[in-house]
Amino acid sequence: MTVDTLRLATAGSVDDGKSTLVGRLLHDSKSILTDQMEAIVRASRGEVPDLALLTDGLRAEREQGITIDVAYRYFATARRRFILADTPGHVQYTRNMVTGASTAELAVVLVDARNGVVEQTRRHAAVAALLRVPHVVLAVNKMDLVDYAEPVFAAIAEEFTTYATELGVPEITAIPISALAGDNVVEPSVRMDWYGGPTVLEHLESVPVGTDPSLFPARFPVQYVIRPQTAEHPDYRGYAGQIAAGAFRVGEEVTVLPSGKTSTITAIDALGEAVDIAWAPQSVTIRLADDIDVSRGDLIAPAGDAPATSQDVEATVCHVADRPLAVGQRVLLKHTTRTVKAIVKDIPSRLTLDDLSQHPNPGQLVANDIGRVVVRTAEPLALDAYADSRRTGSFLLIDPADGTTLAAGMAGESFATAKAVVTVEDEEGWDF
């Protein structure tokens, strides 16, 4: 039986219990080694082991009792493997959540049952919507501190679901839990018999993973050109890389971008063997009928469904560097396997995640800012809208001087529903 993998991220406000939830998942699913558990018991301040220490590994995190960096944890059950990113809840670490959730197929947003939906909860829901995370779990934590009251859970679930749905989040599942006591994390809670849904782990094990390759246009960024030129393979020319989206078949007519030259796939090699079809995210070598100029950074796509190429990129970016991103700045733009020179032509607006308002013409973006940018590239790029393809619709802006990543970009519209965004006059101050 093939065991698939789910990539997920946790998010929530400070002290909502993200690290404790992750620790409880690892503990109750028996994914902790004996020596790890002994170390946690020794490091815990009280008699009860502090499971949050399983993920809060930085000294500053343990001293302050908060999560600062993105902590990745790997665990597995009989049904599925998991790659979990425990992301920070602090306002100033919004960029860290973007990093952790950028590849996630599911986001767990925690809410303290005593406090309900707060501003940081809405921020995290908005980031999940921006990144087009397909599944969101609302974990209403610390139900033990509100006497496991169903009306408390129902009110929070309704408020969050309404907000996230307006942002375009396609699927929201609300689960009442107590991470500290273990209620509805791995085992069903006997104290919340009014809840008939899955536990957190049950939902993680059963949520659909991956997408049907036939639903998305095929995209193949060329990573390497293989030309052995040996006696055994004198004329072999193959284009190696990882399929970013969709599926390719032998005999299919394709277009190579940005040149626009067309050819036909004569062979696909996967793991050293010839195959008739390959799909994302397989790593393969594609061979073409015509001897055309194809190099690293080119994109192979179906001839009838190739993306348009352009030197003008309009996108939403999250600024992740400590140095600002300003209008007129020279940058490198990395899209899949292609890196080109570019100039930031305009920063039309900066987004405030508190109320989803757009502040026009900020002039620059600083760390943790999310804003709209217009970038002019030196060479044409074949970008999809991020809503259509998270892989070929995303890019990085890089400082050409030292290679520092400045911003992570998402081409096209910000949210699935544009009605949520309102433009207001800009003001001085910190938006996050």
List the helices and strands and how they pair.
Elements: E1 4-12, H1 18-28, H2 34-43, H3 59-64, E2 71-76, E3 80-86, H4 94-101, E4 106-112, H5 119-130, E5 135-141, H6 150-167, E6 172-176, H7 200-206, E7 220-221, E8 224-226, E9 238-242, E10 247-249, E11 253-257, E12 261-270, E13 273-275, E14 277-279, E15 283-288, E16 299-302, E17 310-319, E18 325-326, E19 330-335, E20 338-352, E21 357-360, E22 364-365, E23 370-381, E24 394-398, E25 405-411, E26 422-423
Parallel strand pairs: 1-3, 1-4, 4-5, 5-6, 21-26
Antiparallel strand pairs: 2-3, 7-16, 8-9, 9-15, 10-14, 11-12, 11-16, 12-13, 12-15, 17-23, 17-25, 18-22, 19-20, 19-24, 20-21, 20-23, 24-25
What does it look like?
It is a single chain. The protein is of the alpha+beta class. It has 7 helices and 26 strands. Strands 7, 8, 9, 11, 12, 13, 15 and 16 form an 8-stranded antiparallel β-sheet that branches. A hairpin with a 3-residue loop joins β2 and β3. α5 (119-130) packs across α6 (150-167). The longest helix has 18 residues, at 150-167. The protein is globular and about 75 Å long. The two termini are 46 Å apart. The model is unreliable at 58-68 and 418-432 (pLDDT under 50).
